[in-house]
Amino acid sequence: MKEVSMPVQAPGAVVMIRPHRFTPNPDTAADNAFQVPATGDPEELARSAYLEVTRAAEVLESAGVTVHLFDDEDATRPDSVFPNNWFSTHAGGRVALYPMYAASRRTERRPDIVEMLKSQYRVQDVIDYSGLEYDNIFLEGTGAMVLDHLSRIAYTARSRRADPVMLERFCTAFGYEPMAFDAVDPSGTPVYHTNVLMCIASGFVLIGLSMITDPARRAEVAERLAGRRGTRAVLELSPQQIHDFAGNAIELEGHEGRRLLALSTRAAASLTDEQRDVIEQTCTLLPLDVPTIELAGGSVRCMLAGIHLDSRPQVDSASMVAPGAATVR
């Protein structure tokens, strides 16, 4: 594993899950308007998802991102390819484990991944909120929240997957200001996860502002995202671009500190020339081809759990990789 310094907004390492069995989850279809029902041969669907994750990990690693790739052969976990919903990592050596809305997703939490983080990075504290599931309180990680690590704000679209009590509890413990709002798609369906609506990078933001229902809150969100001196460009995405997952992107750090914007090929194709010009002032676009994964209602951002931790000193790599995990090189 390469030495990874503590990043701020753009992590230099990620966790990915490669599914051996994959299908859009019927338990999450009711409130996920981005999800498409599974059709065709289930084995072929699973093979396609497996290859898409493998290729995406290889592209990321060639760009200088450290990828901790874990395999999942459990057929009862259709959404395990989206690990950012059940854990997040934070500067100062902190890890949060989250309560998940769908019961079928709760076994995605894997002790071997947490142990890998402890062994390869400086982890001081693991806060486990998963017990709140028994009280029907849910907050699905950096799917439910989009975190501005620079300004310490947790932007959150209200939904059954983002309980306000849990949001306040997380923000108090981890030092973020909660900024919640209502957001709906053109049909009036509430946005199920904030990270399909917006992406915060160091120098710009991609956001479907028109989908925030309250005009005053919409203006406040735009102002806070831009920063006190307007140092971030706020790029508004159309509802169609949101549907094409242009908001479901993540800024990463690659070779020699180079900033990358990882997003799907579908999302990249939806960007206008003007949006590309602004993005490319600070980031290199890194499209990943994941059409099968996107059938499940999430895209590249959902597939990548960023690691905002300091790495430990180099040791014998053979002794550091947890069972079931492989660091792509």
UniProtKB/TrEMBL annotation:
GO terms for molecular function: transferase activity. Keywords: Transferase. Pfam families: DDAH_eukar (PF19420). Coiled coil: none annotated. InterPro entries: Amdntrnsf_FN0238. SUPFAM superfamilies: Pentein. NCBIfam families: citrull_CtlX. This is Amidinotransferase. It comes from Ornithinimicrobium ciconiae.
